[in-house]
Amino acid sequence: MLIGDVARRSGVSARMLRHYESLGLLRPTGRTGAGYREYSGEDIRRIFHIESLRSLGLPLREVKRALDDPGFRPAELVDDLVRRTRERIAAETELLARLGRIAAAEPAGWEDVLQIVAILQDLGSENAGRRQRAALSLGEEVPLPVEALVEAVLNEPDPNVAGALRWALAQSGEGGLALLAEGLAAPAAEVRERAVRAIVEMTDGGATAPLRDALADPDRAVRGHAALALGARGVADAVPALIDMVVEGANDTDAADALSTLSSDPASAERIAAGLVDLLARASTGSAARRRLTQALADIPGETASRALAELSHDEDRAVALTATYILKLRNAH
Q1: Percent of the chain whose pLDDT exceeds 70
Q2: Which tens digit of pLDDT belongs to each residue from 89-100?
Q3: Which CATH number do you get for residue 30?
Q4: What distance in Å separates the CA atoms of residue 88 and residue 297, rounded to the nearest whole number?
Q5: Record's PANTHER family (predicted)?
Q6: DSSP per-residue letters across 110-167
Q7: Is residue 27 a part of any domain in this protein?
Q8: How far is CA 213 from the centre of its chain?
Q9: Which end of the chain is more exposed for a tag (fewer CB within 10 A), N or C?
Q10: What is the tens place of the pLDDT at every residue in 19-44?
Q11: What domain range includes position 33?
Q12: Is 61 a domain residue?
C-alpha cells in the first residue's frame, strides 16, 4: 500500500508518516519499482499502535521505546502517564482559578491586571515576609476579589501573615463568610482551624451558626477555638466542648473562664455545675483532670457547685481536697 492510501485509511497525514520514519518509529516494508514507499499490513498495525500511544499523551520518543523495547513494562508507563496528567490538570486548574480571580476583580486596564497578578504571586510565595508584605498591602485599595483572600487565609501557615490576611478579609465585608464556612468542611484539620479563626474575627460577636457547626468537628483544636468564641458570646451550646477542654487540659484556663461567663444565668450555672460534677464522679476521669474540674467550679455560682466543693474538700485525692477547701474559703469570704 502506497503512502497516499495509508494516509487516507489511517487518518495520519503523509507528512506525519514521513516524520515517523525520520524518527525511526516507522519503516516501510519495501519500495515499488519506481522507488515509492510501500507499507505492509504489519506497518499499518504499527501506525495504529503509534497513534494509540500518542492519544495517551506519550511523546514520540517514548512511543518508540514502548514499541521497540521487549522488556518495556506497560504498567509503569500507565502510572507515569497518570502522574503527568494529574500534574497537568493541577496546573491548568490553578491557572483557571487565577484567571477567575482576575476576572472577578473587574480590572479596568492592563495595569490593574498586572497588579493583581503580582499580588497573587506574592501571596503564593514561599517567603513568609513577601507574603506578609502582600497581605498588608491589601488595605491600600488593591483590587483583590474576596475568593482569593479567603483562599489565602485558609492556606496560610504563618501566624503573622495569617493575622494580616484575616484583617484584610474582615475589611472586605461579609462576602467571605460563606466561603469561610465552606472551609469548615476541608479534609485538613489545619485548614478548618484557620477557617474558624477567620470566622471569629469576621463575625466579631455577630453570626454564630458556622461556629456552632464547628463544635462537632473531630479535631480538638477546631472545636476549642469555636467553643471559646461562642462561650464569650454567651452561647450555651458551647458548654459541653468547654468542659471537655477542661478535662483534656487544652486551654483549660480559658475554657474555665468561658464557663464562668456563661454561668451568669442561674439556670445555666446549675447545668454547668452538674456537667462538671458528673465528670468528677466518673472513675475514668484522671487525677489531673479532676483537679482542673474542681478549679473550674470556683467561679460557678449556685448550690450545686457549693455542695460539690464541700464534698470534694474530703476527697481521697489530697490535691483535689486541698483545692476544694481553698475555693470554699474564698467563696465563704465573699
Answers
A1: 95
A2: 887 887 777 777
A3: 1.10.1660.10
A4: 58
A5: HTH MERR-TYPE DOMAIN-CONTAINING PROTEIN, REDOX-CYCLING DRUG-SENSING TRANSCRIPTIONAL ACTIVATOR SOXR
A6: HHHHHHHHHHHHHHT-S-HHHHHHHHHHTTS-----HHHHHHHHHH---HHHHHHHHH
A7: yes
A8: 17
A9: C
A10: 888 888 888 887 877 777 888 888 88
A11: 3-72
A12: yes
The answer for 251, left when phi > 0, alpha when psi is -120 to 50, beta otherwise, is left
Tens of pLDDT, residues 51-68: 888 888 888 888 888 888
Helices (H), the chain: 3-10, 14-22, 41-55, 60-68, 74-104, 110-123, 128-137, 146-155, 159-171, 177-183, 189-203, 209-214, 220-232, 239-248, 252-262, 266-281, 287-296, 303-312, 318-333
Looking from the CA of 232 toward its CB, the CA atoms found within 13 Å total 13
pLDDT in tens, 69-78: 877 777 877 8
Distance of alpha carbon 218 from alpha carbon 247, whole angstroms: 16
Sequence-separated (6 or more) residues with CB below 8 Å from residue 121: none
pTM of the model: 0.65
Contact 157, 189 (CB under 8 A): no
The answer on pLDDT for 284 being more than 90 is: yes
What cell does 138 get? Answer: 491589601
**Mean pLDDT computed over every residue of the chain:** 87
Q: What is the tally of structural domains in the chain?
A: 1
Torsion angle (degrees, nearest 10) of CA 140, 144, 145, 148: -120
Mind listing the pLDDT tens digit for each residue in 300-328? 999 999 999 999 999 999 999 999 999 99
Quote the CA–CA distance of 177 and 34 in Å, as a whole number: 77
Q: Is residue 244 part of a domain?
A: no
Please check whether residue 39 is in contact with residue 3, taking contact to mean a CB–CB distance below 8 angstroms.
yes
User: Residue 22: inside a domain, yes or no?
Assistant: yes
Per-residue pLDDT tens for 108-119?
677 777 777 888
